[in-house]
Specification:
Blueprint: H1 3-12, E1 20-25, H2 28-31, H3 38-44, E2 48-50, E3 53-59, E4 62-63, E5 71-74, H4 76-81, E6 85-90, E7 95-102, E8 106-108, E9 113-116, E10 127-134, E11 141-152, E12 165-170, E13 187-191, E14 198-204, E15 213-222, E16 235-237, E17 241-245, E18 254-257, E19 263-264, E20 272-277, E21 283-290, E22 298-299, E23 318-320, E24 328-330, E25 335-336, E26 341-342, E27 347-350, E28 356-358, E29 363-368, E30 387-396
Bound molecules: 2-acetamido-2-deoxy-beta-D-glucopyranose (3 copies).
One 2-acetamido-2-deoxy-beta-D-glucopyranose (NAG) binds next to loops.
Protein name: CUB domain-containing protein
InterPro entries: CUB_dom, CUB_metazoa, Sperma_CUB_dom_sf
Pfam families: CUB_animal
Amino acid sequence: MSEKLFLIIIAASSVAVASFTVYEDNFDDIGEDTFDIDNTHSDREGKILFPFISIVRFANVDCANTNTMNGTCLARRECNNLNGTITGTCANRRGRCCIVSRTCGSATNVNNTYFTNPGYPAAYGGGPACTIIVNRCNNNVCQLRIDLLDMVLAQPDGDGVCATDMLTITGGNTIVPILCGDNTGQTLFVDFNGNAAITISVTATLATTFARRWNIRLTQLGCDCPGIAPNGCLQYYTGVTGTITSFNYGTTANTILSASLVTGTRQLANLNYGICIRMEAGFCTIQYSQSPNDVFSFTVTGDVEGADNTVLGTQIGAVNGAACTTDFVVIPNPVVVATNLPAGTDRFCGLGFVPVQTGAKPFVLYVVTDANEGATAVTPPDVANRGFSLTYTQTGC
Ligand SMILES: *[C@@H]1O[C@H](CO)[C@@H](O)[C@H](O)[C@H]1NC(C)=O
Ligand SMILES: *[C@@H]1O[C@H](CO)[C@@H](O)[C@H](O)[C@H]1NC(C)=O
Ligand SMILES: *[C@@H]1O[C@H](CO)[C@@H](O)[C@H](O)[C@H]1NC(C)=O
C-alpha cells in the first residue's frame, strides 16, 4: 500500500461524527499515554504494514462512563481536537472514551455534547444568561434531541410564570415553551431550521438563592435516524406503555404564593405543544388514564385546596368539553373506557381524569395552558394545580 493511499484513508475519517476512526499508527499517538502499550500489541498483529506503522480502525460507539455523562470512543488526537475529556480507554485500548462537555458561553457542533451549569454537579448560584449555541454536525442532521438528564431550576411564580429562572430554547423549527422548576427526565425534540443554530439558554436570578443545576445531553439526529420524532412533536414517546408528565410535575406543592396570596401552582403558564406517541407494530388504539396512587396526578384547572378526596382524582373532579377554556389537554376522538361510548369532546381539564381510549392516528396529545395559573384569572380559580401525570397503554388491533 502506498503512502498516498494512507492519506486518503485518513482524510476520509471525519473527526466529529465518524462512525469509524481510521488512522495511521506510528506508535507516537499511543506512546504518549500512560498505560502499557504491550497489551494492545496483540490487536495489531496482522495489521502491521511497515515496521512500527499500522492501520488502526474502530467504531465510534458510545462508551458508558460516569453516572452523569457517556463518552464516544475516539482516537486521543480526535478527542483533543474537540476539547474533550478523556476518561478511559475503549476499543481494546486503541481508542479513548471522550466526553465533550460545555458550559456557559460556548458553541458546539459535536454530537452528544453535554451542557451543564458551571461546576456541575455542584449547584449554581445564578448570573447572566448561560448559553450554548448548537450547530448541526453535518447537513444531514434534522433534529436535536435534548435530554434534560438533570434539570432543577427555581419554581415558577405562584401564577405559573417562570419569573426567577428560565430555560429557553430558540432558533429551531419547533416552538419550545419557557420552562422552569423540576424537569429532570424530560426529553425535548427540536427540529433544526435548515442550517440555523439552536440556542439553549438558562437564565437564573443570582439574587434568588436556590440550589439550581443542570446536565443536558444534546444528541444530533440524522434526518433518516430511527429515533427522530415526527416533525413538530416537542415530546415523543415510544413503547407500548409509558407515563407522560407535564413540565414541572411533582409531588410537592409550589410554596410560592400566587398574586392572590393562595398556594402557588406547579403547572406552567403559556404552554401549547404536542406530545406524540409512536404507534407500535400491531397496536391500533391508545388508552390514557391518570397515574394511580396520586390524587393530584390530574390537577389542571380549579381549586386543589378547596377540593377533598371525593373530588380530587375522581369522576366528580373531571371536567371536559366547553367548560375547558383555559388549561386543558386535547385527545382526539376519544371513547370513555368504562362505557365504551364516545366522550363527545376532545378537551379535558379539572381535578380528575376519566380513562379514555382513541384510535385516532397519529397518537398525539396536545397540552394547552393560558398565561395565568393563579387564582385571579378565572372562575373557578386555579389554585395549587400540579399539572398531569398520565399513563398510556396501546392496545392490539
Ligand atoms: C449512557 O449510555 C447508556 C447505554 O446506552 C444509557 O442507558 C445511559 O442513559 C447513558 N447515560 C447518560 C448519562 O447519557
Ligand atoms: C477548542 O478550544 C480552543 C481554544 O479555546 C478553540 O480555539 C477551539 O475552537 C476549540 N475547539 C472546539 C471543537 O471546541
Ligand atoms: C449522534 O449519536 C447518537 C448516539 O449517541 C446516534 O444515534 C446519532 O446517529 C448520532 N448523530 C449523527 C448525526 O451521527
